[in-house]
Write a structure and sequence with these properties.
Length: 340
C-alpha cells in the first residue's frame, strides 16, 4: 500500500526531518490486529533505512525522550507509541468498541469517574487552558525569530509570492506558443509537453517534477533541472520509482505546504493506482499537475493491461479535476499555461 511506497522513498532520500508517530494500539475496526496481520512493522521501517525507536504513548516524559532521539538522528524516524485505545473508559478501553462508535452515556460517566474529571461537558478548566496557552510560547519565540530572518532576507518577496501561489510577474508562454505556430511540428503530445517544460522550468523555479519510473516515456525531465536526492535537496526532479500512489500523495503534500508547483508523470492507465490521491487533490483543491501519457488504446506493444479504456471518462467525472487532452503541440503548451 501507500505506506510501503512512502517509507521506501523517504528512507532512500534520507528525509531526516520526517518523524512519524505510530499509534501502536493493536486494534482495528474489526477487532485485534492479530485477526489480519502479524508483520513486524518496526523491522519493515528499519529495512527501508529508517531510524526506529519506541515509547510508552501515555507517558509524557517517555514520549519527549523518543522525540528528542528522533530529532537527533539524521534518518527519517518511526516512533512506535504503545497505547491503549480508549484509555480511561473502564469497560471498553483496549477494544474495537472505542474505535468508531460513541461510548454511550453510561461509559462516559464511568470514564469521568475513572479519570477524575469533574468539569461540565464542553467546559475547559482554567488551569488546563493556561497550560495549553503556555505550550505555545516556545513556538511563538521561534516564529518571531523566523519572521525576523524573513524580513531581512533579500529573497523575501520571491518567497512570499511563491507561498501565495502567484506566478512571477511577466511569466508567460506566449513566445513559446508563437514559435510553435510559426514553425508547426508534427510530434506526439508527450514530446510537445517536454518542449513546453523546456521553456517553463528555466523560467519558473517554482516547479518540481518527477515520474513514477517512466521518465523516458513521460518526457517529464526537461529544462536542465537537477535530480532531487539525499545529497542535493536543491534538485527539482524526483525519481519516484514504481510508486504512482506515493508520488501523487507526495505531490499533494508539497502543494498543501505551498511554495512549489509539483508535477508528475505516469501512463494514463496507471491513474488506477494513484486514484485515491488524485481524488484528494481534487477534494483539497491542490495545485498538482498530472502528466498522463500513453492515453490511447493505440499505445503499441504493451497490450491490454496498458490500454486506457474507461479512464478518461472516469477522471472527467471526478468533481474539481480539470482534465485536458491536447491534440497538438500548441494545445499542449496552452494546457500547461492553464495548469500553471
Amino acid at each position: 500500500g501507500i505506506n510501503h511506497e512512502a517509507i521506501g522513498l523517504a528512507g532512500h532520500l534520507g528525509l531526516g526531518r520526517l518523524n512519524v508517530l505510530w499509534d501502536d494500539n493493536r486494534i482495528t475496526i474489526d477487532g485485534a490486529t492479530d485477526l489480519s496481520t502479524s508483520e513486524d512493522i518496526k523491522a519493515r521501517y528499519a529495512a527501508t533505512g529508517w531510524h526506529v525507536t519506541e515509547c510508552d504513548g501515555h507517558d509524557f516524559a517517555d514520549i519527549d525522550r523518543a522525540l528528542n532521539e528522533a530529532k537527533a538522528d539524521p534518518r527519517p524516524s518511526l516512533v512506535a507509541c504503545r497505547t491503549v485505545i480508549g484509555k480511561g473508559a473502564p469497560n471498553k478501553q483496549g477494544t474495537s468498541a472505542t474505535h468508531g462508535a460513541a461510548l454511550g452515556a453510561a461509559e462516559v460517566a464511568a470514564a469521568r469517574a475513572e479519570l477524575g474529571w469533574t468539569a461540565e461537558p464542553f467546559v475547559i478548566p482554567g488551569n488546563i487552558a493556561a497550560d495549553w496557552h503556555r505550550a505555545a510560547e516556545p513556538g511563538r519565540a521561534a516564529h518571531g525569530a523566523w519572521a525576523g530572518r524573513l524580513a531581512a532576507s533579500p529573497l523575501r518577496a520571491d518567497f512570499e509570492r511563491r507561498m501565495a501561489g502567484e506566478l512571477p510577474e511577466g511569466f508567460s508562454l506566449d513566445d513559446h506558443i508563437a514559435g510553435l505556430i510559426a514553425a508547426p511540428q508534427k510530434i506526439a503530445t508527450r514530446k510537445a509537453s517536454e518542449i513546453a517544460l523546456g521553456a517553463i522550468n528555466p523560467a519558473l523555479a517554482d516547479t518540481i517534477g518527477g515520474s513514477a519510473d517512466l521518465t523516458g516515456s513521460n518526457n517529464t525531465l526537461a529544462g536542465g533541472i537537477a535530480t532531487f536526492k539525499r545529497d542535493n535537496y536543491a534538485g527539482r526532479y524526483v525519481y519516484y520509482g514504481i510508486r504512482e500512489f506515493g508520488m501523487a500523495a507526495a505531490m499533494n503534500g508539497m502543494a498543501l505546504h505551498g511554495g512549489v508547483i509539483p508535477y508528475g508523470g505516469t501512463f494514463l492507465v496507471f491513474t488506477d493506482y494513484a486514484r485515491g490521491a488524485i481524488r484528494l487533490s481534487a477534494l483539497q483543491h491542490c495545485r498538482v499537475i498530472y502528466v498522463m501519457t500513453h492515453d490511447s488504446i493505440g499505445l503499441g506493444e504493451d497490450g491490454p493491461t496498458h490500454q486506457p479504456i474507461e479512464h478518461l471518462a472516469s477522471l472527467r467525472a471526478m468533481p474539481n479535476l480539470l482534465v485536458m487532452r491536447p491534440a497538438d503541440a500548441v494545445e499542449t503548451a496552452e494546457c500547461w499555461g492553464i495548469a500553471l
